[in-house]
Amino acid sequence: MREDRERGSYSVGRARREKILDVAIANFAELGYSQTSMAKIAQDAGLTGPGLTHHFPTKKHLLVAVAERRFSMLRELAEEAPEDVDGTGPLRQMVRLSGLLHRQPGMVELFVLVSAEAADPTSAAHALYVARYETVVAALTESFRTSVEAGFLRADLDYDGIARECIAVADGLQLQWVLTGRRIDLLGLIRNHLERLAPAILVSGRAVDLSDELRPARS
To answer: What is the pTM for the complete model shown?
Structure first.
């Protein structure tokens, strides 16, 4: 019985935490991080101030949790990626992930904001971002190497370096997108970079068109 109560308490706490994150993301996207107060988040989540700080002691803790949700969301999407049949799978996956984020502009802005926080080695975001980059680079590198073993990609290239370059371009363009008030063509620029990369890594050397990955799925 005690174990059942503990599980029930954990489930309720988890659901409440997720609701707080939903509310925080909505407020951050609409009002901006600096203009959103903890009191507003607590009110919209139906909690008291102490009820909110029980889960997130400060707004920075909440911001880091929002970043963690983004990373989890992208990881789950990557795990559901279709099998690579021609060597363009890793590139197509990057385009799909970029499209997902583009449909949630508030998440992009929060990612950029937390990136600045993560530059401080003493911040809660620092360890999260260090782990995030190592995980993402390793996963993308592994995808490239799997395609090498399948005979689709050239075997004489540094795919760890290529993975880091792809991630740097995508993250850097997200920063520019935020700084320009969303005026640059974020998805088009990421796609163009990956399409220029494709002939250099494919054994066939052929050009590819990744625009299909940005079209809405047909019902």
So the answer is: 0.78
Q: Is 23:45 a contact under the CB 8 Å cutoff?
A: yes
Residues 38 and 90 in one domain: no
Residue 158, sorted as left (phi over 0), alpha (psi -120 to 50) or beta, turns out to be: beta
219 in any annotated domain: no
Q: Tell me: the pLDDT tens digits for 94-148?
A: 998 888 888 878 778 878 888 887 888 887 778 888 888 888 899 899 999 999 9
**Which pLDDT belongs to residue 64?**
81
Determine the structural domain holding residue 111 and report its residue range: 59-214
Q: How far is CA 12 from CA 7, 8, 18, 44, 143, in A?
A: 9, 6, 10, 18, 38
The last residue of a domain, from among 19, 38, 57: 57
- Residue 96 falls within a domain, yes or no? yes
- HSE at residue 94, side-chain half, CA atoms within 13 A, is 33
Collect the ranges in the chain with pLDDT lower than 50: 2-6, 217-219
Q: Calculate helix-pair angle for 2-31, 105-118, nearest 10 degrees.
A: 100
Question: How many CA atoms within 13 Å lie on the side-chain side of 126?
Answer: 6
pLDDT score, position 88: 95
